[in-house]
Amino acid sequence: MRIAIPKETHPGENRVPVIPETVKKLCLLGAEVVIEPGMGTGSGFSDEHYLDAGASIQPDRNKLFAEAEVLLRLRKPTLEEVPMIPSGCVHISYLDPFNEHELVRALQQQGVTAISMEMIPRTTRSQKMDALSSQANLAGYVTVLLAANHLPSILPMMMTPAGTLKPAKVFILGAGVAGLQAIATAKRLGAKVTAFDTRPVVAEQVQSLGATFLEIDLGDTGETAGGYATELTPEQIEKQRQAQKDVIAQSDVVITTAQVFGRKPPVLVTRDMVEGMQPGSVIVDMAAETGGNVEGSVPGETVEVNGVKIIGQANLPNNVCRDASKMYSSNLFNLVEDVWDKESKRFVVDFEHDILPGCIITHGGEVTNATIKNILEGGN
Amino acid sequence: MRIAIPKETHPGENRVPVIPETVKKLCLLGAEVVIEPGMGTGSGFSDEHYLDAGASIQPDRNKLFAEAEVLLRLRKPTLEEVPMIPSGCVHISYLDPFNEHELVRALQQQGVTAISMEMIPRTTRSQKMDALSSQANLAGYVTVLLAANHLPSILPMMMTPAGTLKPAKVFILGAGVAGLQAIATAKRLGAKVTAFDTRPVVAEQVQSLGATFLEIDLGDTGETAGGYATELTPEQIEKQRQAQKDVIAQSDVVITTAQVFGRKPPVLVTRDMVEGMQPGSVIVDMAAETGGNVEGSVPGETVEVNGVKIIGQANLPNNVCRDASKMYSSNLFNLVEDVWDKESKRFVVDFEHDILPGCIITHGGEVTNATIKNILEGGN
């Protein structure tokens, strides 16, 4: 079965979908792996690395697509690329199906089996394929490094003959995968860390990392089966804002990681809270790209409001692209291996599989995912 | 006694010589403190902060200088500024007297009492005034953050469902104040750290921080009374280079902090060693500004050689300018307080003092420092 891996084309993207080590593993499964030249360059892997691992190289991108039975990618295809994908081909990538309606329709009409990495269910067995988590984990690490690099003071306490420098105060909003890694990294660097999450169940995890959990009584909150926070009511959001206001004013660093699956993230840090912080303080808004947790954050930019820096950089895992590529590549492989038929040496689109059907968006000319189908048909 | 504090004028310098808290302490000693407007801006201190602390403000820079009895500064004066300093005034700042011969002559002829912060002797009692150490300490922290921000992988080990990421390998050359802090910071972030120093005496300190000390038998080496490494012979340097070559080739990050007091730093990492590293690796050359420990490093720039990034950024403490200002300000205050006469409420230029004479370069129209005098007269 021919697995093709084109080069990523998104500007600034240095992550690559598959690393040489994974190519080796795919070949061991019996797959034929073909890559586009320079596919691994962004993360420091040369064509020679891939050739050594057993891949062959196809310099003609159109041919690469035309002859593919499975396409392994990182970012969603562009609309222009969809006609290049053969009907019946399995296309695995991020897809953003909640928002990319036109793209989903195009993939459906093209007869592509489009698998969305975002839709891997969050179960124990599928963790190994969960790219959202693997990338969020690295993003959490990056947020703290970015903050530390922009802060005019150090994170750890330092006792010196010239006096003692107090540890920086870091407040982390949202203690999901990214938030927990941000907490761990800030703690490693010696900061005094406080965190909040609307899911009371994570308080213990926060505390086990050595951070303080900010207690706010929001009444009834909870989490989805997938482990995401459920959306708050406007009253609950207001209550949270008020309760965290003082903590934010006293913080040197605020990192916001609040996401609600499939929806616009909530604005948790308002303009007056930003203005309440000391000049020189730093906010990292991990949600900037999708709407922002922080009022005034600009996607892809660092802006200054009253001397407070707000970092809205998108694609944080890209900062540690090599490790991010390793993790994503591993996620892809684990998915492929899990549905691979060892007899026929083929990727099997099996709608009886426990994980696969949930992340197939289109197949055989249909939108097979019920949630996405509902949205496309005007539901919500 | 009137203490004047002008604004720093060096491009990009955000550290400030004196913070408001120190102004308060100077006023308590009985000093009259006058600052130039905007003196603290770089590190986030407003004129109001200084007014509240007891300072007054003199917007006329010429007048500020003309009426000063003591000038407290961070960077050395420019040659053009020397005629602005009143004869008999005490001018305390970095001075770089080993290299700034013309400046030292000008200060001598102007009749200034020029005190060089670099020349504070490294004794137990003078630690509190030692700006080289306080700034090197912060610089060591900054080197690791810079490296981590440029590295395409993370520093800590991470065990995830998608696989395990190994800890980054960090090699630190020179385990003085900066090197030790770099080791501590890299260890905090979870890296696997190896270090080397020509002074065998620091092996224990390196190991107590959890790092591996690279054993290289260089024969006779040692340190000065001030704790600096003594200069190696060309043969010893070559031996060190060979012995560290393999470690460098296997390292993700190399940080060089080797300084020899008053001399050009040694080149420890040669071009072939840089080329032996994996693409994506990062080198931070802390000595780039004064000549460089790394072949190919460029002062103030990040260059790429064979995919290896070499960071030659100057003035690393400036990255954490607020804490650097706090430390420097505290160093200045500790020096002033130590020689302050409480009766007359004056800074006393006392050549019987145990610390002061060593760091006075010029006084009463003479070059009083024997080492510097010798250099100026053509010695070495």
From TrEMBL, chains A, B:
<dbReference type="GO" id="GO:0005886">
    <property type="term" value="C:plasma membrane"/>
</dbReference>
<dbReference type="GO" id="GO:0008750">
    <property type="term" value="F:proton-translocating NAD(P)+ transhydrogenase activity"/>
</dbReference>
<dbReference type="Pfam" id="PF05222">
    <property type="entry name" value="AlaDh_PNT_N"/>
</dbReference>
<dbReference type="InterPro" id="IPR007886">
    <property type="entry name" value="AlaDH/PNT_N"/>
</dbReference>
<comment type="similarity">
    <text>Belongs to the AlaDH/PNT family.</text>
</comment>
<feature type="domain" description="Alanine dehydrogenase/pyridine nucleotide transhydrogenase N-terminal">
    <location>
        <begin position="4"/>
        <end position="139"/>
    </location>
</feature>
<keyword id="KW-1278">Translocase</keyword>
<dbReference type="GO" id="GO:0016491">
    <property type="term" value="F:oxidoreductase activity"/>
</dbReference>
<protein>
    <recommendedName>
        <fullName>proton-translocating NAD(P)(+) transhydrogenase</fullName>
        <ecNumber>7.1.1.1</ecNumber>
    </recommendedName>
</protein>
<dbReference type="Pfam" id="PF01262">
    <property type="entry name" value="AlaDh_PNT_C"/>
</dbReference>
<dbReference type="InterPro" id="IPR036291">
    <property type="entry name" value="NAD(P)-bd_dom_sf"/>
</dbReference>
<dbReference type="GO" id="GO:0050661">
    <property type="term" value="F:NADP binding"/>
</dbReference>
<dbReference type="GO" id="GO:0006740">
    <property type="term" value="P:NADPH regeneration"/>
</dbReference>
<keyword id="KW-0560">Oxidoreductase</keyword>
<keyword id="KW-0521">NADP</keyword>
<keyword id="KW-0547">Nucleotide-binding</keyword>
<dbReference type="InterPro" id="IPR007698">
    <property type="entry name" value="AlaDH/PNT_NAD(H)-bd"/>
</dbReference>
<keyword id="KW-0520">NAD</keyword>
<feature type="domain" description="Alanine dehydrogenase/pyridine nucleotide transhydrogenase NAD(H)-binding">
    <location>
        <begin position="148"/>
        <end position="312"/>
    </location>
</feature>
<comment type="function">
    <text>The transhydrogenation between NADH and NADP is coupled to respiration and ATP hydrolysis and functions as a proton pump across the membrane.</text>
</comment>
<dbReference type="InterPro" id="IPR008143">
    <property type="entry name" value="Ala_DH/PNT_CS2"/>
</dbReference>
